[in-house]
Specification:
The complex is a heterodimer of chains A (605) and B (470). With 605 residues, chain A is of the alpha+beta class. In chain A, 43% of the residues are buried. Chain A has 20 helices and 20 strands. Chain B is mainly alpha-helical. In chain B, α2 runs antiparallel to α17 and α11 runs antiparallel to α14. Classes of the chains: A alpha+beta (605), B mainly alpha (470). Chains A and B meet through α1 and β1 of A and α9, α16, α17 and α18 of B.
Chain lengths: 605, 470
């Protein structure tokens, strides 16, 4: 039977021959004509060398360099390119044992046969340069240059944070990072990682069988240049920060200073601290373990993450709320006879004349006065029940930025604690608590948690007479015109400016009012400092000493909060420290050496 | 007497080519992974030693097939096909997942890949079906049944997923064409393949609009009716405005995509209705063609996103020049081209290749075995291997054409096509002409399953050929 379609065998056969011809032509091109692929076999292996960009630098607000970079050299290994080499001279060169070499190779091989792995971290510059010369003896190895952090001033460890190696979890989540890469772990290094790190690049080299680079692969067609990290200017004043750390060196506590009109953080001291260069390079993990094992918790950033009751500094807030709610006026007077007693409850006060008006009450920090004020706030006839009045009072506190993270650009901010009415409802029962139950709140004790940063922010808000800017530490980023708009928005507090003037009068008197003033130690000749002492009750030992202040009174340039743990009364230690800081910042030098000595010789149990 | 006949009637030239190919394959596997500490080619702990065992087993299978009566294969064609389908189903359930696809049965230390054996099974079933007495090849039913026989296993393999192996079944277009299906099949396949690549290259939205414009132009060429054309165009625009408006009202601001789709669907449907009502001729087929093309466009895009694994998508994208990533997914191809290119005209000599041995080329003994040929034997070697295959194919076409039985001829074309498509795709991918899909080079690549499957395919045909006189 003759198949009518048998002619189609020619088409099929023709197609097969045609494709065969195409393959042959392509092979002829690849193998005979094209020279790119005709390189000798020895030149034919390719090595990808990652180009690590320099991390962005950090400067203080006046351009003083705080963080820079130094070169470090890692010995890398690509196990697939290994061949026999002199392990003895190699181990001598690196100063390790032959068995270390063997285990290192095994570890790298377990990780990957093709991907380069860190064989030995951060060898010295000399070792690196000798190794570089002798690389041809050790096929598979090469030297990778990286940058490590360097701290010319060795201050502000908590603020800047540190840089460390990425861990496996992060590598899985973010493929940008590879084994051995560095990343910001805390502080600004962490929060501004994307800006500081830049972008890795890569270069492709041809290497011969001796691991010598013989040239660029395909004229760098597949190279990607590294983009260096952007520099950051901080709002920190390096001199002030350094001076603050010096003053606090024997104390446990913190200092936060803010420029009131801008919200720029001028210094952020938390002690005990550590020199930031401890957490660099090879010593990092060991030093980190030592620091985290220290009972004084030097890694803990108290300025952001420690929460204390605000103590008497809180009386200013209650005064402002009382004025705004019109339950008191500046001339309202209350009597005080060594304390406040009501229905058999007693809250002590110290000796001062009686009765006092509001300004004098702030000056003398009179407990009775503010318990009376607090009672009027809580029993305000505008509200049906205590918890309504309480909630209104609480909303005022929230508007000061309390009870919530400030959403600054610092990492590790604590929210603090301002109890909701449910808290008391749960504790005492609905309707079963009144002003007397929570009277400690009147004088800043009890169930309140405020961080030093929040306290400094409140001070700034008072200095501004009714608004604050979200505190932040980054002033500008190189290559970008603006900072995040959340740092340029005013947070208005719903309390009239006139009321702030009254409170500031009281704070002025507390420092400059002469006999009976609680913070006379904060006084500076020629500068009107307004301040308020506080003492946070500490159930575990001596009370914490607190002082908030701003200066000068007109056009304030600095608002500061000082916390000294176990420092006792606020006027004793915290006030002079704040005063010295203000003097340093406003005049650029400290003339009151006697006060400095008083601090340096302080002994706190 | 009968056995003597077989030996006399066997096509020894093809067997010679077969032996030459498996021997060269074995040598190249040895060279590709040659290891100084295991210098013997018969070291059974090494792949080259194992391949020797697979070769021996393949020869045993070949002899066994030659001893079977040649009518057996035609008689049991459907049965073998059914078994193959069941095995493919089974591997989806009890198969072991290796490298992300469930393609292997593992029994003890032994692995077998059933998709390899589905290829001869399809060839048998297809040959049996198309050689049915009095079959009318022009009927649509025949066409559909043929398509089912071919693409059912392909679909099951796609589910594993093993795109490369699934792709191979397209090769059966050749025997189908040879048996008299319209030449349009070849052209359609080519067009679909072209469209496939275009979909991956361009935004499918743009492509759809282009298809629509081509549809309008085709209509103009067919009917020369400007009024109808304008009506059709306005219908489309109207539908677009309405659907975009509706979607916008429902808050889907960036709804161009959905709106285009909806208006396209509505327009095509209304064209069809209008063509029917007003009895506008020659238009039905055109609309059908446009609809099919539109669906196909989306099917390709969808399967690219859903059936291809990430790495395969990347490989295709690199192949098409959408992505450049010479050290990532493009690594294989780049290295294999360097290896082959570095062989130059005369090659570096047996065991002298460095690229393949230093593990620059991955899978150097299986999918990339051709690199070793290229590197160590140069252009002379690659030219010879391709010539060997071409001779083999021409010889098989000659054998197929001399068959009296339609069954034997169709089966012959079936296996030619399968072996050819492997040959073409495998070599094309090593030299950067085709995306890396991972299918072996027949008779050369390391691996028992593929070697046995190709041997079985070939020797069934040789047995049929030997029995052609009976």
């Amino acid at each position: 039977m003759i198949n009518q379609y048998s002619q189609r065998k020619y088409i099929i056969g023709g197609l097969i021959l045609l494709t065969g011809l195409i393959l042959i032509l392509r092979l002829f091109y690849l193998q005979v004509i094209n020279s790119t692929y005709k390189l000798s076999a020895e030149n034919n292996s390719k090595r990808e060398v990652i180009q690590y960009p320099a991390r962005g630098l950090m400067y203080d607000r006046n351009g003083v360099l705080l963080v820079s970079n130094q070169a470090a050299y890692d010995v890398m290994l690509t196990p697939g390119q290994l061949s026999r080499f002199d392990t003895l001279s190699f181990s001598k060169l690196l100063g390790i044992s032959v068995s270390d070499v063997a285990t290192g190779i095994k570890k790298a091989r377990d990780y990957s046969r093709f991907a380069p792995t860190v064989f030995m971290k951060q060898v010295s510059g000399e070792v690196a340069s000798v190794l570089q010369e002798q690389l041809y003896k050790f096929p598979g190895f090469f030297v990778q240059t990286r940058t490590l952090r360097k701290y010319p001033k060795n201050i502000a460890a908590h603020l800047m944070g540190y840089v460390g190696e990425v861990d496996k979890n992060l590598i899985e989540k973010n493929p940008y990072y590879q084994m051995g890469d560095y990343i910001g772990i805390s502080g600004i290094e962490k929060n501004y990682e994307d800006i500081l790190r830049g972008e890795k690049g890569k270069k492709n080299f041809l290497v011969d069988v001796h691991s010598r680079i013989t040239g660029s692969y395909q004229d760098g067609r597949f190279d990607e240049p590294a983009r260096i990290g952007n520099d950051i200017n901080l709002t920190i004043d390096a001199d002030l920060q350094e001076y603050g750390e010096l003053l606090m060196k024997d104390f446990t506590g913190s200092i936060v200073a803010i420029e009131p009109t801008t919200g720029e953080v001028l210094c952020l001291v938390s002690t005990p601290s550590y020199p930031p260069d401890l957490l660099v390079g090879r010593g990092l993990s060991q030093n980190f373990n030592t620091l985290s094992g220290d009972s004084l918790k030097p890694l803990f950033n108290r300025a952001l993450a420690a929460s204390y009751p605000p103590g008497s500094t809180f009386k200013i807030i209650n005064a402002l709320i009382g004025l705004q709610e019109k339950v008191i006026s500046p001339s309202t007077e209350f009597g005080c006879h060594m304390g406040y007693s009501f229905r058999g409850q007693f809250l002590g006060c110290h000796s001062h004349r009686s009765p006092l008006d509001l300004r004098e009450a702030i000056q003398h920090s009179c407990n009775s006065y503010f318990v009376n004020t607090f009672r009027k706030i809580m029993e305000d006839p505008k509200f049906e029940a205590t918890h309504d009045a309480y909630n209104n009072w609480r909303n005022h506190l929230l508007s000061f930025g309390l009870g919530n993270s400030m959403n600054s650009d610092l990492s590790g901010e604590l929210k603090g604690f301002i109890p909701k009415d449910e808290y008391y409802n749960r504790y005492y029962g609905v309707g079963r608590w009144n002003f007397l139950t929570i009277r400690s709140l009147a004088i800043g004790q009890g169930e309140l948690g405020v961080t030093p940063l929040q306290m400094a922010n409140i001070t700034a808000a008072i200095a501004n007479k009714g608004y604050f800017m979200t505190p932040h530490v980054v002033k500008s980023i190189k290559g970008s015109d603006t900072i995040n708009h959340r740092f340029t928005e005013k947070h208005i507090i719903e309390i009239d400016t006139a009321h702030f003037t009254v409170a500031i009068d009281g704070m002025d008197l507390a420092v400059n009012g002469g006999a009976g003033s609680t913070a006379g130690r904060a006084k500076i000749e020629g500068i009107i400092v307004c301040g308020k002492t506080g003492t946070a009750e500490n159930p575990h030992g001596e009370d914490h000493s607190i002082f908030i202040a701003f200066a000068p009174r007109e056009n304030p340039k600095i608002a500061i909060a000082v916390y000294i743990e176990n420092g006792g009364f606020g006027g004793t230690w915290a006030a002079p420290v704040a005063s010295l800081m203000i003097e340093e910042y406003l005049t650029g030098e400290v003339k009151r050496k006697f006060l400095e000595d008083y601090i340096f010789n302080a002994v706190i149990k | 007497m009968k056995r003597g006949n077989i030996i006399a009637n066997l096509d020894w030239f093809t067997i010679l080519l077969f032996i030459l190919m498996i021997f060269l394959g074995w040598l190249n596997i040895f060279s590709a992974i040659y290891n100084e500490s295991h210098p013997s080619i018969l070291d059974f702990n090494q792949k080259y030693g194992k391949q020797f065992l697979w070769i021996l087993a393949a020869i045993v299978m070949a002899v066994a097939i030659l001893l079977i009566d040649h009518r057996f294969f035609e008689f049991f064609g459907y049965f073998i096909y059914a078994v193959a389908i069941l095995t493919l189903l089974a591997v989806l359930i009890v198969g072991k997942e290796i490298n992300g696809s469930k393609s292997w049965f593992v029994m003890g230390g032994f692995q077998i890949q059933p998709s390899e054996f589905a290829k001869p099974a399809v060839a048998l079933a297809l040959a049996k079906y198309l050689s049915t007495f009095n079959i009318n090849i022009q009927k649509a039913r025949t066409f559909v049944k043929t398509a089912v026989i071919i693409f059912l296993p392909s679909l099951l393999i796609l589910l594993q997923p093993d795109t490369g192996s699934a792709l191979v079944f397209f090769a059966f277009v050749f025997p189908v064409y040879r048996e008299g299906f319209s030449g349009m099949i070849l052209i359609t396949m080519f067009t679909l393949a072209l469209l496939f690549i275009l979909v991956l290259l361009f935004n499918e939205l743009l492509l759809l609009l282009i298809i629509l414009v081509i549809g309008f132009i085709a209509y103009w060429l067919l009917a020369r009716n400007f009024k109808n054309l304008m009506v059709a165009f306005l219908i489309f625009v109207g539908f677009f405005i309405v659907s975009y408006g509706i979607l916008f009202l429902f808050g889907m601001d960036s709804a161009y995509y959905a709106a285009t789709l909806m208006s396209l669907a509505f327009s095509l449907a209304s064209y069809l209705v209008m063509a029917y009502i007003y009895r506008i001729r020659k238009i039905g087929l055109l609309i059908l063609a446009v609809t099919v093309v539109v669906f196909y466009t989306f099917a390709v895009d969808y399967s690219f996103e859903h059936f291809l694994s990430d790495y395969q998508q990347r490989r295709v994208n690199i192949m098409l020049g959408i992505q450049s990533d010479p050290l990532g997914a493009g690594y294989n191809v780049n290295q294999s081209m360097i290896a082959i290119g570095s062989g130059g005209f005369a090659g570096k000599g047996f065991l002298q290749g460095t690229q393949t041995k230093l593990d620059f080329v991955p899978e150097q003994s299986t999918d990339f075995i051709f690199c070793t040929v290229g590197e160590e034997w140069g252009f002379i070697g690659t030219f010879f291997v391709i010539l060997l295959f071409l001779t083999f194919f021409i010889r098989l076409i000659y054998l197929a054409e001399r068959q009296k039985e339609n069954f034997a001829r169709i089966y012959g074309y079936g296996i030619i096509s399968v072996i050819f498509i492997h040959f073409f795709i495998n070599i094309a991918m090593t030299i950067g002409l085709f995306p890396v899909v991972g299918i072996p080079l027949p008779f050369f690549s390391y691996g028992g399953s593929s070697l046995w499957a190709f041997t079985i395919m070939l020797f069934i045909f040789l047995r049929l050929d030997a029995g052609r006189m009976e």
